[in-house]
Amino acid sequence: MKPLLEIADLQAWYGKSHVLHGVSLTLMPGETVALLGRNGVGKTTTLRSVMGLLSNLKGTLLFDGRSLMGMPTHAIASLGISLVPEHRGIFATLTVEENLKLAWRPSSRWDLASAWNMFPALEERRKTYAGKLSGGEQQMLAIARALMPGPRLLLLDEPTEGLAPVIVERLVATMRELKAAGLPILLVEQSLDVCRAIAERHVIIDEGRIVWSGDTQALEAADRIVREHLTLENA
Amino acid sequence: MQGQVILFQLLNGIGIGMIYFLLSVGLTMIFGLMRFVNFAHGTLYLVGAYTAYSVSLLTGSMWWALAFGPLAAAVIALISERLILRHTYEMPHEAQILVTFALALIFQESIILIFDPLAKNVPVPSLLSGIVFIGSFVYPAYRLAVVFAAAVIAILLWFALERTRFGAALRAGSESTEMVSLLGINVQKVFMVAFLVGGGLAGLAGTLSAPLRGVEPFMGSEALGVAFVVVVVGGIGSFTGALLGGLLIGVVQSMASSLWPEGARLMIYGAMALVLLVRPAGLMGRS
Question: Can you tell me the distance from the alpha carbon of B130 to that of A171, in angstroms, rounded to the nearest whole number?
Fold first, then answer.
């Protein structure tokens, strides 16, 4: 089978600082992969590189066999990749419904009804300005909005960051639902529990390089790796 | 001042204010969206006014002028955005100011070369050249028509901003253009349309004001100053702010010109200073 997303020897720079030193990662159709690592090791940069948000890149980026290198962000998004960025990026001065409608496309299999169906709490607040939502609601809105264009791949950047445990549980359930529906997900997470609950394959990144990858069972066994490359607080 | 005089100056102020709104709304949108400082914005007002003057001279009809003034300004806004300005979005504000200021000077000097530096009159459309009785009060029909036309455009613009997908993209873009592009929307196209519409409206402001104040080559730089005052008073990036700011500045200018004609310009800046003392982010501004 052909990989849906193929990242090979990806190098990236922010100005003069070299942040990715050859990241390689593949994601097969239907697969959920977790990208783990401490703060500042290149997780977010990897996702942003896929979306064409870094101007200085080297290496290979293929989506469904097609190179993403040099493509503008909106064109990459239109191919069917949705990113839910860190800190959600919801439009505070737009209503919940406007946030969703802005992302919708005629070709999409998602619509407002399916968004309300998945997130009933959002429907109750459809006319509310998104800036007035709670953190958990904002994260649901960010995910719902990312689904509106009908993506073929969902990139999630720390979706559970800063949220209360009950909300995290709710989000994990949502991600499992999406996974069950066959939507491939590349998840950046600091919480090992969340990764174990959702992903079947885990990739650990440190200092801009992939240092380990394996399935959930292997991750349980990889004590030393986890201690070495992930912070103890999050383990 | 007598009651009639006050009413007359108030109505004049509203008319000028609506023109100021049309002039400024593009500037505030473009700054809100792209953080782009456009010192060539007054040029579009200038182009609108001179196109109106030329067309009314050639065709003898102000109605053609009303169509061509905004159109010429919109086309020039679009061409300058595509050819020059879009390459400066990533540059610091100083560079944008230099480039757009140069553009403004080039247009101003070209107008002096093509026409001459002298002020010229532009006729009022024949249909609107009369007066209107409001009770015992007499008022020029054209000035009322300007208020009415600008109000219609303000309502249409409001609908376009609040009720269309393009309007939502524009409002979302003033929060984060990166996030808008992540949703698959081509932000460059949004910028382009914003320039086209904003330029056309500044051209319309120039066209509508031409019969009221005539045309002269330096009206563009004067308009630029007023437009920045309106944008700052109203709050950067705010549509409602541009409307309220335009009306406030228009009324202040009109009232001041009957009390202290020499200081009318100064009073505009006085009003701005007062507003900023009370609301540093402007009337409708988000801090």
Answer: 68
Nearest by CB to B183, which of A92, A93, A149? A149
- Degrees, nearest 5: CA angle B151-B157-B163: 130
Domain tally for chain B?
1
Domain of B159, CATH number, reads 1.10.3470
pLDDT tens for B178-192 read: 999 999 999 999 999
Q: Which CATH number fits domain A1-80+153-164+185-235: 3.30.450.40, 3.40.50.300, 3.40.50.1760, 3.40.190.170?
A: 3.40.50.300
Q: How do residues A81-95 score in pLDDT, each as one tens digit?
A: 999 999 899 999 999
Contact yes or no for B178 and A93 at CB 8 A = no
Start-to-end Cα distance in chain B: 39
Q: Which residues contact A114 (CB under 8 A, 6 or more apart)?
A: A147
Number of H helices, E strands in chain A: 10, 10
Residue B13 included in any domain = yes
Note whether B190 contacts A: Cβ–Cβ < 8 A.
Answer: no
pLDDT digits (tens, 9 = 90+) for A58-114: 999 999 999 999 999 999 999 999 999 998 999 999 999 999 999 999 988 899 999
The domains of chain A are located at 1-80+153-164+185-235, 86-151
Size of chain B, expressed as the number of residues it contains: 287
- The confidence band for A235, taking pLDDT boundaries of 50, 70 and 90, is very low
CB contact under 8 A, B187 and A145: no
pLDDT tens digit string along B214-264?
A: 999 999 999 999 999 999 999 998 899 999 999 999 999 999 988 888 888
Locate all alpha helices (DSSP H) within chain B, ordered by sequence. Answer: 3-34, 41-59, 62-83, 93-114, 141-163, 165-175, 177-182, 187-213, 219-234, 239-259, 264-278
CB distance B184 to A103 below 8 Å: yes
Amino acid A65: pLDDT:
92
pLDDT at position B136 over 60: yes
Q: Is residue B283 part of a domain?
A: no
pLDDT at B1: 55
Contact B183 A93 (CB under 8 A): no
Task: Test B186 with A51 for CB contact under 8 angstroms.
Answer: no
Structure confidence at residue A231 as a pLDDT band (50, 70, 90): low
Q: How far is B176 from chain A (nearest CA, A)?
A: 8
- State residue A223's pLDDT score: 77
Give the ranges where A119-234 is alpha helix by DSSP (H).
120-124, 135-147, 165-180, 192-198, 216-221, 223-229
Q: Is residue B131 part of a domain?
A: yes
Interface pTM, i.e. ipTM: 0.93
CB contact under 8 A, B183 and A83: no
Asked if residue B287 belongs to a domain, the reply is no
Distance from CA of B86 to the nearest CA of A (A): 15
